[in-house]
Amino acid sequence: MDRTCPKTEHVIVENSADVHWAVSKVKKIAREIGFDATEQEELVVCAKELAMNMVLHAEGGILSIRVKCELMDWEIEFTAKDNGPGLRSIDEAIADGLSSRGGLGIGLGTLNRFMDSLDLLPVPEGQSGTRIRCTRKLKKRERYAVSGPLDVGVASRPCPGFNLNGDSYVVRIIDNRLMVCVIDGLGHGQFAHKAASAAQKYVEDHVHLEIEALFKGVDRSCRATRGVVMALALIDWERNSISLAGVGNIEVRYRGSNPGFSYVFKRGFLGAGVGRVSISEHVWEANDLLIMHSDGISSKWSLEDDPTISLLSAKQMALALLRNYGRDNDDATILIVKKADGADTTKR
């Protein structure tokens, strides 16, 4: 296996034969640095979109393929340069099918789904065209554990009278961290379901990204949908910390050894061009409790109303709260995180 690093190859793209040559190089490099067969095909699709765009819309260009490695983290980077008519904004063109010229909007949506980052680079003064750079890291599959000291329970159901749920959620453990996420597509029914599913898929496929990059990617993935509101928590039980971020009306309640709070995120929704997402950091102790829910759950309740409910498992708590406080006119999702029964929280 040739994992020489760094490595950069430049392919001049002027016709379909050059496109084929470029993607064959991408597939070879991706295989060499360890991407699996599915990931290789996804990278090939992205490289083909960039190269074909040069042929169709810019009378050719240069596709640079770069391999980077830092602290054993491998990454492949594509940079596309052409002298075509240019692109004002990735965000304007990225919604699948919205490009006025056909291919570029769809291609950028594909790049956003399969790559970790996607940026429009400035064009040097006096020059024209488009400069796009996108990257994807090689995932460390062995990092994804299957258990931890935390109990996670989720209850979710569609709006009464509808078959499709416009809410969704994500639960993943990565090393010694738990990521949980609650997503609410605007409205309910099939279009809310489409938006929530797009956001869920992006988060699940990019759990290794930093929180702000995740929100940016979800925002782009939801451009052709109604949009979603979303809250995300990342709990590191070794470092006793919790990071919270969100956009829109997802309610977050925290109870524990430190002063509890209910968190209110900035207004707006993802899919409409969200700005910088603020991330708050807090202490997380072993016996703390986190509750996140969509607005299909009434906010007019308190754990003090029924002290016995905190004694239930996370799943039982979620089901009880959904049953007692779920609204009849909306999708509803509630997610609970608490200490798992019998969990050893002694630091090693």
Cα gyration radius (Å): 22 Å
Tell me about the biggest sheet?
A: 5 strands, antiparallel
Strand order of the largest sheet: 1-2-3-5-4
Number of strands: 15
Instruction: Please indicate the percent range of residues in DSSP E strands (runs of 2 or more).
Output: 25-35%
**Element-by-element helix/strand order:** EHHEEHHEEEEEHHEEEEEEHE
Q: Which structural class should the secondary elements be placed in?
A: alpha+beta
Number of helices in the DSSP assignment: 7
Distance between the termini: 37 Å
Tell me, rounded to a whole number, the average pLDDT.
86
In the predicted model, the low-confidence regions spanning at least 5 consecutive residues are 98-102, 142-146
How are the SSEs ordered, and which strands pair?
Layout: E1 7-13, H1 16-33, H2 37-57, E2 61-70, E3 73-82, H3 90-93, H4 103-114, E4 117-120, E5 130-137, E6 150-157, E7 167-174, E8 177-185, H5 190-205, H6 211-221, E9 228-236, E10 241-247, E11 251-255, E12 261-263, E13 279-283, E14 289-293, H7 314-325, E15 332-339
Helix pairs in contact: 1-2, 2-4, 5-6
